[in-house]
Design the sequence.
């Protein structure tokens, strides 16, 4: 059986899976990968004495201290800034909660859950207030979904391509299993009035961060999460309550949720006027750009990695779309002239990270690797040239262009624009 | 629209989902859940000053210190024992890595990954040894799957029902997204000889824990994991390498994997002779019971919870099967006389936790709640009476009978046998 191989060394995604070809895979892997000596086990210190005891709550290995969130805080405004998920060090689709990105406006409040309340008021017949104990008794639902800051990847708007690891560039996106109460159930407790059009959600941090959300989205798939990846939400992700707005920009997923005001128009808050708005080529600003469009990034190999052997590699990356499922990720090794479909790790879930992988043969050729995602609406991730043609050069938010990694003959990786 | 309601107050699983019925849900919830005062926000301390700064690696809230692994170690054998996942405190299907259960034979080795090797030898033409750096270059795959100790729930064999929280009874099962290299790829590097029938996997802890695995399973869906829930595996779960044997008993999922010996028969190790074997009614022992059969448990409400109001509840629990997907979970409120189908949270994945939920109306009646799982092979979880009839009273491993929670008129919950 022959497998398709295209320019730059990309190979049909089924290549690794066929038993008949495994041997040729082995043969093509350099000798040092199959070194036969020594084959006696050295008795290491950890084989010579009992290990550590049981722990109530586990932590990463001390040898993995490099896998951390990179933080970037504003020294003039306490608690304002970002920490980034190190996407280049991670695999699969789940982001461990300790590495979920953070974006705070005034730091991480340490909320006592017994004192916390969620109020729903405004254009309702029955204003209500829930304690956490109340909320824990409501019906729950779970969803594995990504949250992406509207400002993620904004360095892509720079004139010159930024040279930095994937996580420091695109790491304001993470993916967790969230569990909570359908927002619709709680809104129904408050009995919305007919003129209710917008919901204004407020967090309980010192900035009282608030944003507006159309009522149609609020009553469709939004939920009020109490749990992240099985356990109660971490403080920096909104403990004890976070509004989850699947597929829409991160700022709407209000952390430390304490108030939902029902109104007939948006609130015109700082985060939907001065920030998180789009300056268009016309000079006007677009106030709302809720949905995070389809995007993909090759995380391995990527900037900061060094290719130090010839032979087979598995290219791996992440794709996601705020409009539903990813249906296709294509990979190119010649900067988009020819494309080959990557394998999508199952299950492929809507509004969730999708891991893609594809075999690639590198024999020292200079190539430009890139990926492009297509979602179930048919939307195709644009090139940077296409994105700039559409949105102009004054953008700051919602950068989702194809990302190119140029690999030199020396195996060095740099970020290049198309 | 009328919804089916059966004995003990169980209601059709779609009850919460129908918009037309939300109001009746609200109406049936006691007044204290919708208390209308006070509706002004008190200015708490966390709204009055900036919160904490950004962190490189997040931790649970200090208010959640009760959600921990309960540990049970043998004081006469350092590092021998168990820690249990607190299933009663968790939601969704992902177990956070810090709460994944532990079963160690000689403690948790602190392995330096640069010194660790994986050797494959025995009935092979090309004995091989891999460093972690080598392995990281191989093609990877991901799977969300459960690992369950063969000894999980063994207190079910006691003459009297144990009165303890779900996690301390059934918590030797957890579910993570694991990412690693298909074992078949690595075995092919070693070139198995025709008489290769068994694989003997050894861990790098001080007990050099080893077990035998049939080659057919090893070359089907097993993989050598480097990542758990996105990040590198935690030390207590096998850092830097763990063998994943989806759906089969936990002891086969060898942690700190350092050696795979290929043989034509099992090794007759301690953990497949003195332990992890089944004493049958005939007095003979069954050496191998690899597959973990279908099982389900109601985690909420369960022992340790106290019902303190009348009205609607959502019953929630977990089901899983080592034979594939869960196709059905039924719940009974009259100890198995009548059953109603629970809702299965999507996605339902093979060899993975499945979260089930069902509405239940409690008006102070004494009931016995229980759940039973069916998997895609048609296997139905047995009652304890059926299990004992089949396996006798000398069992220790593979206890998967239906678990009954008796709820008194006072809302107190106890564990009862059928």
Sequence:
């Amino acid at each position: 059986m022959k497998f398709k191989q295209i320019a730059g060394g990309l190979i049909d995604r089924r290549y690794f899976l066929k038993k008949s070809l495994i041997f040729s895979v082995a043969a093509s892997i350099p000798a040092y990968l199959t070194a036969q000596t020594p084959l006696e086990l050295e008795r290491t210190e950890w084989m010579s004495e009992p290990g550590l005891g049981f722990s109530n709550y586990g932590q990463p290995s001390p040898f993995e201290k490099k896998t951390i969130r990179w933080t970037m805080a504003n020294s003039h405004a306490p608690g304002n800034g970002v920490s980034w998920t190190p996407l280049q060090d991670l695999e699969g689709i789940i982001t461990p909660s300790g590495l979920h990105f953070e974006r705070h406006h005034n730091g991480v409040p340490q909320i006592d859950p017994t004192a916390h309340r969620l109020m729903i008021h405004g254009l309702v017949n029955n204003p209500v207030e829930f304690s956490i104990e109340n909320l824990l008794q409501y019906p729950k639902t779970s969803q594995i979904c990504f949250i992406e800051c509207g400002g993620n990847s904004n360095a892509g708007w720079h004139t010159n391509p930024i040279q930095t690891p994937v996580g420091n560039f695109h790491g304001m996106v993470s993916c967790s299993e969230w569990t909570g109460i359908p927002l619709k159930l709680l809104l129904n407790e408050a009995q919305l009035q007919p003129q209710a059009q917008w919901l204004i959600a407020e967090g309980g941090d010192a900035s009282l961060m608030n944003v507006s959300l159309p009522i149609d989205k609020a009553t469709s798939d939004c939920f009020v999460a109490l749990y992240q990846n099985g356990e109660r939400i971490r403080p920096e992700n909104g403990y004890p309550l976070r509004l989850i707005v699947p597929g829409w920009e991160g700022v709407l997923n209000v952390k430390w949720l304490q108030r939902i005001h029902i109104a007939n128009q948006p609130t015109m808050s700082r985060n939907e006027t001065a920030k998180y708005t789009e300056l268009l080529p016309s000079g006007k600003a677009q106030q709302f750009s809720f949905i995070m469009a389809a995007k993909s990034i090759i995380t391995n190999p990527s900037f900061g990695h060094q290719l130090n052997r010839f032979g087979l590699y598995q290219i791996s990356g992440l794709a996601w779309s705020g409009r539903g499922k990813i249906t296709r990720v294509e990979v190119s090794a010649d900067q988009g002239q020819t494309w080959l479909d990557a394998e999508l790790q199952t299950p492929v879930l809507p509004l969730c990270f999708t891991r893609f992988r594809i075999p690639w043969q590198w024999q020292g050729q200079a190539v430009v690797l890139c990926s492009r995602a297509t979602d179930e609406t048919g939307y195709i991730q644009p090139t940077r040239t296409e994105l700039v043609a559409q949105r102009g050069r004054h953008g700051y938010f919602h950068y989702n262009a194809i990302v190119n990694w140029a690999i030199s003959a020396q195996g060095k990786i740099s970020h290049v624009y198309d």
